[in-house]
Amino acid sequence: MASILDSLLLLLAFVNTICLAHSPTLREIYRFPNGTWVENIAVRPNGNLLVAVLSTAELWEIDPSTPSGPSSARLVHHFDGAEDTDGITELSPDIYAVIASNSVWTIDLRSHESAKPTLIAKLPAGYLNGIATLDEGNAVAITDSQLGRVWRLEIRTGTYDVIHQDETMAANTDMGLLLGVNGLKIVGDYMYYSNTPKRIFCRVRIDTHTGRALGPYEVISNDTMADDFAIGPHGVGYLAGIRDNVIIRVSPNGYHEIIAGSKGSADLMTATSAAFGRTRRDHNILYITTGGETELPVNGTSTRGGKVMALSVEY
Q1: Global confidence as pTM
Q2: How many Cβ atoms sit within 10 Å of the Cβ of residue 175?
Q3: Fold of 26-312
Q4: How far is the C-alpha of 44 from the C-alpha of 28, rounded, in Å?
Q5: HEC string of 195-249?
């Protein structure tokens, strides 16, 4: 009997070790109410997260260091008259540009946590979506998902023009909506972008002041559906896989792999955007926003709300 008991204890210890070795590195930071679509994310210098809630045209701040609950999130601003909020980019420390219904606003959080945004311009766009900083914060590049182009907007003057329009950015209706170029990031002298229905992740070398192309439009990877994304060390992309409900890691040579989520899982259902932490404690944490636990755009309150998730990433 003793030998059988010892064997059972050894088996249980082995199973427990296996479970610990495969313990999930994905955890929930905050969940919004049912019917809420969270679209984009930026990380403040203090480590807090700014998230754009598309379905309510709001900007929220979330403290990822506190337990999930009402006290860990606060409303920064509601954009009256707007139908949605989309991209966010940091122009300079704690000053941001935010897209709300084809208008671009700036908001300064350096000294006033409840600062009101300033309207920069309303563009004659199809649908403004992703946004990235140019010219040391004096301008931004913005994707137009319906017209399949990238705009450049001067922050001080509000003037704008089209700086990119390529076949890799073109829109189609394969997903039901007219959609093309989507997420956007500028790292070094490369502009990275996704085209969601074409399932491609691309880049182009640019002039970091004008934003205009200095080289060819390159497809880094095919068959990688993505909304927005983060760029990690060594130019590695971490793509929010929207309808595929995953995070995909893409190397500069095009090799890609799923590192979290799955088609049949609700953990990252409708993953929309991602950003790395900025403090010593969370520099290897990828924060991910989702549109909620639904396979369709949120247009009511019958679906579980969008979330902010945290994923430990090994570089």
Answers
A1: 0.90
A2: 12
A3: Neuraminidase (2.120.10)
A4: 19
A5: ECCCCEEEEEEECCCCCCEEEEEEEEEECCCCCCEEECHHHCEEEECECCCEEEE
CA–CA gap between residue 76 and residue 48 (Å, rounded): 12
Domain boundaries, the chain: 26-312
CA distance 94 to 54: 21
What pLDDT score was predicted for residue 114? 67
**Which of helix, strand or coil describes residue 143?**
strand
- pLDDT at position 15, please? 36
Report the distance separating Cα 244 and Cα 291, nearest Å: 12
pLDDT at residue 68, as a whole number: 64
Sheet holding 95-100, edge to edge: 85-92, 95-100, 103-108, 118-122
Inter-CA distances, 300 with 30, 106, 305, 307, Å: 20, 29, 10, 16
Q: What is the distance between the alpha carbons of residues 69 and 228, in angstroms, rounded to a whole number?
A: 26
Query: Quick one: DSSP state of residue 84?
Result: -
Q: Supply 310's token pair.
A: 């945290």
Distance CA 62, CA 76 (A): 10
pLDDT for 234-253, tens place per residue?
999 999 999 999 999 999 99
In one letter, which amino acid is 272?
T
Q: What angle do CA 48, 225, 272 make, to 5 degrees?
A: 25
Q: Which pair of structure tokens corresponds to residue 283? A: 């520099």
- Lowest average pLDDT, out of 65-69, 96-100, 258-262, goes to 65-69
Hey, what's the torsion of the CAs at 74, 80, 86, 88, to 10 degrees? -60
- Give me 22's structure tokens: 């495969």
Do you know the residue count of the chain?
315
Indicate if the pLDDT at residue 206 is higher than 70.
yes
